[in-house]
Structure formats: C-alpha cells, structure tokens
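ASSEMBLY PREDICTION REQUEST
Request ID: AP-0331
Submitted by: J.K., bench scientist
Number of chains: two
Total residues: 453
Priority: normal
Notes: Please return the full assembly, not individual chains.
Input sequences:
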Amino acid sequence: MIVDVNKCLHCGGCVGSCPTNAIFLNDFVLEFNNRCNRCGRCVKLCPVHALTLEAKQ
Amino acid sequence: MKTYTCDVVVVGAGPGGSMAAKFCAQGGLQTIMIEKKAEIGAPLRCAEGVSKKWLQEVGIEPDPSWIRADMVGAVIRSPSGYTFKLDESKAGSEVGYVLERHLFDKALARDAVKAGSKIMLRTSCTDVIRENGKLVGIKAKCMGEEIEIRSRVIIAADGYESQVGRWAGIETKLALNDIDSCLQYRMVNADIDPDYCEFIIGRSVAPGGYLWIFPKGNGTANVGIGIIGTECNNGEAKTYLDKFIDTDPRFKNSQAVEVMGGFVSTCPGLDCAVDDNIILVGDAARIIDPITGGGICHACRTGMYAGKVLTECAKTGDFSKKALMPYEKMWRDRMEDKLYRNWMAKERLATLDDETIDEVVKLISGSDIKEVNVYNLLRVIKERFPKVVEGFEDLI
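STATUS: Completed
Returned structure:
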C-alpha cells in the first residue's frame, strides 16, 4: 500500500474499516501488516484519497 | 519490560473511556486509562454537536468552559433548497450545544482522575494478552517503550478503529453500507446563522449521508460531510465538500483553518459487546445513532453502564461473559429500539432520489409536529410516503 503522507489526516478511518484488521495507526504513521489482502476498501473509503494499491509483484 | 497491574485497563480516553474510568474508580476498582494521543480531546475528529437531555442522565453538569454555542434550533435543507426550520420549542431533544471537544473530553478525564483513575498518555495498545485462553491484560507502547498492563478486565473504548475488541476475538467488522466516510473543515469568517445547526441532505450533496454546518460563534463553523461507504471510490468526501463550499455564497469570504477526517459506523451496534474479561463501549461497540452519526451520548451512557456493571462484578470477582451480560441488557434496554429504527431509516434514506427528498422536506415543513425528533418525523413521512418506511412500520 502506498500512503501519501502529504494527504493522510491520521483519522483512523481505514483502520476501523479494514476487514482483516491489517492497518495500524500509531505515532501518526499508517502501517499495513501481512494480513492485508489487497481488497482495496481503504483506498475507496479514504476521504482525501491518500491511499493507493501498489501494483502486484 | 515494565509491567503495571490494575483491576481495569481502559483503552482510549474519549468520552466513553473517561466515563467508564470514572465509574470504575468510583466503585473502588484500580483503574488505568491509556490514550495513544499526546493530548486528550485533540486532534479533533468530531462535528461537536450534541443534544442536551442526556447530560443529566449520565451525571454531567453543563459547563460554560466546554459549551461553545447554545443552539436555538436546526434547519434541514433539501437539495433544491427547501428548508424545514425547527426551533427549540419544537426541536425537543434533537438540538442542543456545539461543544469544544478538546475541553469537554479533558473535563470528563478530570472527573475520572478525581474518582481515582490513573491516565497514561502517548500509550497505544498493540495487542491483548492471553494466558491459558484467558484475557489477562494488554500490551502497549508507552512513549515508545513496550509495556504490559495486567488487569482483571479490559474496557475497549478505542473508538471507530475498534481494534482491541478484534484482538480479543469480538468481530467488529462493518458492512460497507454501515460506514460513513467523513471530512470536516473549521471555517472562519463565514456568513452563517449563528443560532442554527444545518443539515443538508440529498444524493447530489452527500450521497447516502449528509452535509452539516454547526456554528461555533463569530462566523466560525464546523462544516463537514459524511458519505456512505458504498458511494465512495476516490476521495468523494473531499470532492463533494469542496464543491459545496465553493458554490455556497455564505462561504465566499470564508477560509478553512483546520481540516480533519473521521469515520462513523451506521449499524445498530454489535451483536454482543462483551466477552470474558472484556467490555466494548461507545464507537468501539458500534453504538452510534445511524441517522445522525452522533456518538457522544451513547459513549457516555455505555461507559457509565460498563463502570457500574464492573463495580458489581468486583464484589464476586467474576468478570466472565455471563457476569458482564447485565451491561448488554442495560444498553439494549435504553437504546436498541431507537438504534435499529434509525438504522432502517438510514438504509431507506440512502436510496431516495433528490426529488423525493425535496418532497419529503416540503411535507414535513408544512406539517404540524409538536416535538420534532426522528421518531415524529418518520411518523409524518409514513402517512404520505409509506414506501419510505416500508419494513419497519412497526417501530414507528
């Protein structure tokens, strides 16, 4: 997941919306762990479009 | 690793957490409340509008230090500009104060401290601790240092993020249509009515949600938007809110001094908000009014209930799910019917086209409702637009 730190407002909306509980917001930094299954829900919901799915390797 | 021991650890120092901590400490329980942010009540993630009646119910005395503005009424505006204005004599419990949340939250935290609760700032929960299958506390990072807080019971008051419950095995996952993605600006120098909260509804304005203007005095207002998850694809909240502010003449000479995001759940609460040695309160338990997105009164009530139930449990030392079930009964008895009814109304409102919303607002503005609240509004709508309330007529 690519986080645009210039846009992210640290609102935690993606954290609470994540179906796999893969997102963490501590110290004003968003982190994604390996439970992320690339469903893209957080990308769609972010109110300021701060998230982008990385191209699959 | 540093280890702390207590009876109750409360995760999150919002209104729900502070109320819970206060009532636990009052009941003689050793209570530690942790807050991951550096300041309780800030940065803001809230529109700050609350009704008045419930404050007494949870024992909070209105204090001028955290009341920014006292509302005379509210205005509901349809997409084509039809308005329904309700003043205080009609508005009943639906209008009230616009708060200073950073001061309100600190006042509640102070009450928790007065009752004997400890507070740890800059302390974020990272997991729960289980021993032999039993919850025995939490892992946390305090100022960057890993710690453990051992407790007999956990109160998860971690708000919309609601991770603690999930770590403990309580499913708090939301359906996409039960999520509202929100964005808000603090606007200054706006030409707005200082005495009325305004709610603007309609697909063209805020798909599946609404746009709000909550005045805070001196031309300042919280202007925000909530959009239903199913309509979000690409930063819609900001797009729609910017479009509104750019085109509404009241904001021609206005600028934003603050921007904040935030989400609300719009479901009727979790299936069960307790398990062995854990209670979820407020937003973390998804206990929010699904129509308004208002959560503060629900958080305060559930926090209070949690504290009272745990005080009773401490007498026998039994914090099992079964022993905590009175909490479940208390919040359901007080709020479940209304939450469910407003959830159904939200589901239906989200499907209405702008023409119907215009008609509905025209209808209610011409009706003679003595006390205006969601319940009475739905009753009027039921007469003219039975389809709108189809499926939950029994609750109206």
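REVIEWER COMMENTS: Chain B touches chain A at residues 36, 43, 45, 124, 126, 141, 144, 159-163, 166-167, 172-174, 176, 179, 181-183, 227, 229, 232-238, 259-263, 265 (CB under 8 Å).
SIGN-OFF: pending second reviewer
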